[in-house]
Write a structure and sequence with these properties.
The protein has 20 helices and 17 strands. It is about 40% helix and about 15% strand. Strands 10, 11, 12, 13, 14, 15, 16 and 17 form an eight-stranded mixed sheet that branches. A seven-stranded mixed sheet has the order 1-2-3-4-5-7-9, with helices on both faces. Helix 17 runs antiparallel to helix 18. By secondary structure, the chain is of the alpha/beta class. It is elongated and about 115 Å long.
């Protein structure tokens, strides 16, 4: 065999060894945990045969604690690029079979190279996280590596989509990279995220919790809102990444891919004419409305199990990707609170950053009252949603279905926050507050007088008549307030509502509005950046 053939054979052997990561025993151990390897995950996610690996032969430089004797090609992360449905993406997958996926200086260098390429070429970056944290043998060099990654996450924010899948442990400082990305997907049973582990928690606070209770997928999908999606398994997690990417552009100067629409744009939904209950206090399910108006009823919900009083997610109208934000009357009457405001505000800002139009469906009675909300800064958090809508320059289409009261009316993409087309159903009640509350305030003096008169009445029958007369008076005033203010026509009179539409035609009217605003051009005042109320 000639020297060239020997070198080629050596290359093939080194490639094969590198693809085994930590070796066959480590791979089997990973499989025994019910988890895939880094390369198996990449093959599951990317188009077949599209993956081009980079830095396969990188090795760590550490000589502390005998580390110079432990060398593995690739150094615990697989990096490269490929395609998903033909679109370029960059990817890194931490390899738990090698050093437990712990981050070293050179591992961070590999990840940073991929992120730099993604920025340079305007393509999404996907991180598949499965790591034991920083490689402690490297000390400050490992911490410096994390900081290099974080800085790139920050630079890439709003420029290219960043998606993180947590497919194993992600603890300590490592959690901040996913937290800086746009979307986090966790897997039930195999993934967890926390800053301090159960042992530290036990030592410091005395709490006895498991990893799952402290930072499992269910916890972060329902309680903290850290996870946007909680997948049942890795296959579902990969399918979610693919679906999520289909709704967004590759970068902030492109438009989201437009797909062929097989759903008639003028499809009328007669059921919408009767979806609003007769009683203003009765709930209905906003999912019924969303499903009826979007293309083929397809809706990818984000943060499905957290802050369920507001719904956010992606859909299409006539093949165009949009972000949908909707109050949910079926949960807490659709009120806004701290978490709903955070959830809605962050989603609005993502859509605005990536040129995705916003469709807002409004049925909101106000902000949730109480000391818990006030102590948890509902004022500041409500302002986040307000800021996000006011800052957004993408097309904004708003439809008010029923209630839109007080400050919550303003916050939910009203006309004065540069809404492009604001529609209302005939059932819309756009006012400072509901008729009952308004009458109670406006005629409080008469109420006090009636109670005083009843107390001085000569008989119980006379007292009952006084109070009955006052009740009738208040009922008349409530109706008067309803007729004057709790209708869409009062807002339409001032041009705050562009049109009152028949519910069955909502899909068609939204599509027309989106088509009208396709060439919209709007810029914010020149500045370094705003100071959003964080």
């Amino acid at each position: 065999m000639g020297k060239q053939l020997e070198k080629i054979q050596e290359l093939i052997e080194r490639r094969n060894a590198a693809r085994l990561g930590g070796g066959e025993k480590a791979i089997q151990k990973q499989h025994d945990k019910g988890k895939y390897t880094a390369r198996e995950r990449i093959n599951m996610l990317l188009d077949e045969g599209s993956f081009e690996e980079l830095d396969m032969f990188v090795r760590h430089r550490c000589t502390n604690f005998g580390m110079e004797k432990k060398q593995v090609d690739g150094d615990a992360v697989v990096t490269g690029y490929g395609t998903i449905e033909g679109r370029l993406v960059y990817i890194f997958a931490q390899d738990a079979t090698s050093f437990g996926g712990a981050l070293s200086e050179t591992m961070a260098m590999k990840i940073c190279k991929i992120m730099d390429l993604a920025m340079k070429n305007g393509a999404p970056v996907i991180g598949l996280n499965d790591s034991g944290g920083a490689r402690i043998q490297e000390g400050i060099n490992a911490l410096g590596g994390y900081a290099e990654i974080f800085q790139r996450n920050i630079n890439a924010s709003g420029v290219i989509p960043q998606i993180s899948a947590i497919l194993g442990p992600c603890a300590g400082g490592a959690v901040y990279s996913p937290a800086l990305t746009d979307f986090i997907i966790m897997c039930q049973g195999i993934s967890y995220m926390f800053l301090t582990g159960p042992k530290v928690v036990k030592t410091v606070t005395g709490e006895d919790v498991s990893q799952e209770q402290l930072g499992g997928a269910k916890v972060h999908a329902t309680k903290s809102g850290v996870a946007h999606f909680a997948a049942e398994n890795e296959e579902e997690a990969m399918a979610l990444i693919k679906k999520l990417l289909s709704y967004m552009p590759s970068n902030n100067i492109e438009e989201a891919p437009r797909v062929e629409c097989t759903d008639p744009i003028d499809r009328a939904e007669d059921a919408l004419n009767s979806v609003i209950p007769e009683s203003p206090n009765d709930p209905y399910n906003m999912y019924d409305v969303i499903g009826a108006i979007v293309d083929n009823g397809e809706f990818l919900e984000v943060h499905k199990d957290w802050a369920k009083n507001i719904i956010v997610g992606f859909a299409r109208f006539n093949g165009q990707s949009v972000g949908v934000i909707a109050n949910q009357p079926n949960y807490m009457a659709g009120v806004l609170d701290v978490n709903a405001s955070r959830k809605g505000g962050r989603f609005v800002r993502f859509c605005d950053a990536f040129n995705i139009p916003l469709v807002t469906l409004v049925d909101v009675p106000g902000f949730l009252p109480g000391t818990q909300q006030e102590y948890n800064a509902v004022i500041m958090n409500g302002a986040k949603l307000l800021y996000a809508y006011g800052e957004a320059t993408v097309p904004k289409i708003t439809v008010t279905l029923r209630k839109s009261y007080g400050g919550s009316h303003i916050v939910m993409s009203c006309k004065q926050l540069r809404g492009d087309m604001n529609y209302a159903w005939p059932s819309a009640e756009i006012a400072v507050m509901g008729a009952s509350g308004a009458a109670g305030i406006l005629y409080a003096k008469q109420g006090k007088m009636a109670k005083a008169a009843a107390a001085e009445a000569k008989s119980e029958e006379e007292a009952k008549k006084i109070m009955a007369d006052h009740k009738q008076f208040i009922a008349e005033k409530e109706q008067e307030y309803n007729d004057l203010f709790c209708t869409p026509y009062n807002a339409a009179k001032y041009g705050y509502i562009d049109d009152v539409i028949e519910p069955r035609n909502t899909r068609f009217r939204i599509i027309r509005a989106l088509e009208q605003t396709r060439t919209k051009k709007l810029t914010n005042p020149a500045k370094k950046h705003g100071n959003i109320p964080l």
